[in-house]
Amino acid sequence: MNIEDRIKSLYPLVEDIRKVSRKAHYINARMLYAKYKHSIEGKKLEEIAKDLGYKEHSTIINLLRRFDSFWDTEEGFIQDWYFISGDSELEETNKLKEEIKELKAKLSKVEEVFPDIYKLSETRREEVVNKVNIIIKATLKNELGRQKEIR
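RE: above sequence
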């Protein structure tokens, strides 16, 4: 299945990604197409612009910037990208997200992790809680960094 067929399977309302339209599903389809052609196939911006019927490559630059913005805010869009790009790491990423949720739930209740925490002095207890919070933040920061590398 080629890139355009994959996009059409995600966005059935998109008859042709080259159609001039500002509807969201057309824009999303063009963003995915441009990102795929540029990142996966290594096509130059000018080639992608010509392929989509644009006069200049500046529109492709804008699509790629919007892609990055959508990546940070739209969960469904990330899954669309994994489908389009044929990225087999989607399942692994979802597993990691689940593990993070589980860790956050466990570590939010420090007494579950360290049942004797209330036997410590208040100062020492605060130190333990702060260290646990640092570990949580570092783990999340590392995981987010790994997910951005996947992208």
